[in-house]
Amino acid sequence: MTKLVHFELTSADAEMTAKFYSDILGWTAEPSPFVPDYQLLTGENGATGAVMSDRYQSQPAILWFEVPDIDLALTAIAGNGGKQAGDINTIPGQGRVVYVSDPNGTLFGLKQPQ
């Protein structure tokens, strides 16, 4: 079964926005070691999210789903009217990731763990 594994919020000031959520939710916020202007958020229960610069994506919120095979998921998405919305990237120690969109153009992400 596919599960929700991450969320991203976009902001003109990622650091300030991440601090806001950190302060109100009690989560930690720290800069990504891989992407500039990308702040990682971590909650006590293992929940993860991030705030990134809106120059990367303009949609205010993006949900990420774990899939066992990104290539198979991309085939299913294309077969149902969706699209791949970026290159497949590998995050060291975490796995493969890619942005996609549904037939309405709403972005979401797929993550295939290592």
From TrEMBL:
Name of the protein in its database record: VOC domain-containing protein
Taxonomy, superkingdom: Bacteria
PANTHER family: GLYOXALASE-RELATED
Stretches assigned to the VOC domain: 3-113
Annotated source species: Pelagibacterium lentulum
